[in-house]
Amino acid sequence: MEEEIVAGHKSGYVAVVGRPNVGKSTLINGFMEQKIAIVTPKPQTTRIRQLAIVTRPSYQIVFMDTPGMMKPRQKLDEFMMDTALSSLADAEAVIWVVDASVMPGAGDRAIAKQLSQMGGTVPIILAMNKNDLMSALQVVQHTEAYQALLPTPRWLLFSALKGNGRDELLQMVVDALPEGPRYYPADQVTDLYVRDLAAELIREQVMLQLRDEIPYGTAVQVEEYKERDNGILYIGATIFVERDTHKRIIIGKKGTQLRRIGQAARKQVEEMADQKVYLDLWIKVVSKWRQDERAVRRMGYKAG
Ligand SMILES: Nc1nc2c(ncn2[C@@H]2O[C@H](COP(=O)(O)OP(=O)(O)OP(=O)(O)O)[C@@H](O)[C@H]2O)c(=O)[nH]1
Ligand SMILES: [Mg+2]
């Protein structure tokens, strides 16, 4: 990692916002060239704001991954929406990610309105994602439709998944940032601790491996986290669910489902921590926690 800082060094906080499932976290991981944020095919994967820090001799960009913006229906959604909005308030530049493979919908229009209310005080980049899924005709029709929602000179079509256009997008961000200091050490890539990342990786597996509404009612907390004498990292974590039936489904016949989740999560955590891991998982039912503000906070979802 480069240590020197060059004259004219640029820096700033960049909020990455958009509807759920448009590819914000995939983009962040692409910028980082490593997995920082969890990604699943299901909407509402990201729940908290997570920093992803890109440091070069001439700039430091502090990306803020945020939960997808949507109409809140539960207390948890309210927390997620507040998190996205407060990230916007903290931003020196904004990347508005849209899924350009589909025409804009009501959610995109609401976000465009929100962003226009910022009154041009911060540069906004319209990042039209998923161009790998688009026909030539869609490219014309969809990009025009998104640009009409929020006229900005800074826009591009790209694919977070395939990586095309990512470098141009990064350059657009650098161009939009003011001169400023380096806020974080050059080797720091995120603000989450390893134990929080581990909880996220467990939740990612729950989201990937379970269907219907079950994943949305789960939360994960790491209760125990210690290095044992034999060099193995011991992690004891609880998966919270909203109903007894969900608990039974997560555990599965003779515990097979839970074992599958545990094995996959352990591999992910080992890769992230670069260490052998022993993972113990428990399941607890907290009825309707997503609707209860205090319970939501106890799960670790509190405005910070
Ligand atoms: N085909 C295609 N799929 C993509 C692209 N970018 C992201 N995806 C997929 O879209 C899904 C959602 O990606 P995420 O990165 O989790 O989206 P997000 O915006 O962070 O979603 P939330 O956290 O739920 O708000 C995943 O299945 C990704 O693999 C892309 O450029 N092309
Ligand atoms: Mg996300």
Structure in words:
The structure is a single chain. The protein is 36% helix and 21% strand. The protein is an alpha/beta fold. The protein has two domains: 10-176, 3-Layer(aba) Sandwich (Rossmann fold), CATH 3.40.50; 194-298, K homology (KH) domain (GMP Synthetase, Chain A, domain 3). Helix 6 runs antiparallel to helix 8. It is globular and about 55 Å long. The model has no long low-confidence stretch (mean pLDDT 96). The chain binds guanosine-5'-triphosphate and magnesium ion. Residues 18, 20-26, 39-41, 43-46, 67-68, 129-130, 132-133, 159-161 line the site of guanosine-5'-triphosphate. Magnesium ion is lined by residues 24-25, 37, 45-46, 65.
Helices and strands in order, then pairings?
Elements lengths: L9 E8 L6 H9 L17 E7 L2 E7 L9 H16 L2 E7 L6 H11 L7 E6 L6 H14 L5 E3 L8 H11 L17 H16 L9 E9 L5 E9 L2 H8 L4 H18 L3 E9 L7 H6 L6
Parallel strand pairs: 1-3, 1-4, 4-5, 5-6, 8-9
Antiparallel strand pairs: 2-3, 7-8
Helix pairs in contact: 6-8
This protein binds guanosine-5'-triphosphate and magnesium ion.
CATH class of the largest domain: Alpha Beta
Strand order of the largest sheet: 2-3-1-4-5-6
Spans of at least 5 consecutive residues whose pLDDT stays below 50 are none
CATH architecture of the largest domain: 3-Layer(aba) Sandwich
Integer average pLDDT: 96
Oligomeric state, counting identical vs distinct chains: single chain
- What is the CATH homologous superfamily assignment of the largest domain? P-loop containing nucleotide triphosphate hydrolases
Terminal Cα separation, in Å? 30 Å
Structural class call reads alpha/beta
Give the helix proportion (percent range). 25-40%
- Number of folding domains? 2
Task: Could you tell me the CATH topology label of the largest domain.
Answer: Rossmann fold
Please report the total strand number as a whole number. 9
Order of helices and strands: EHEEHEHEHEHHEEHHEH
User: Helical segment tally?
Assistant: 9
Q: What is the CA-atom radius of gyration, in angstroms?
A: 20 Å
Which small-molecule species are bound to the chains here?
A: guanosine-5'-triphosphate, magnesium ion
Q: Based on CA inertia axes, which overall geometry fits?
A: globular
Tell me the strand percentage band.
15-25%
Please describe the biggest sheet, giving its number of strands, its sense, and whether it closes into a barrel: 6 strands, mixed
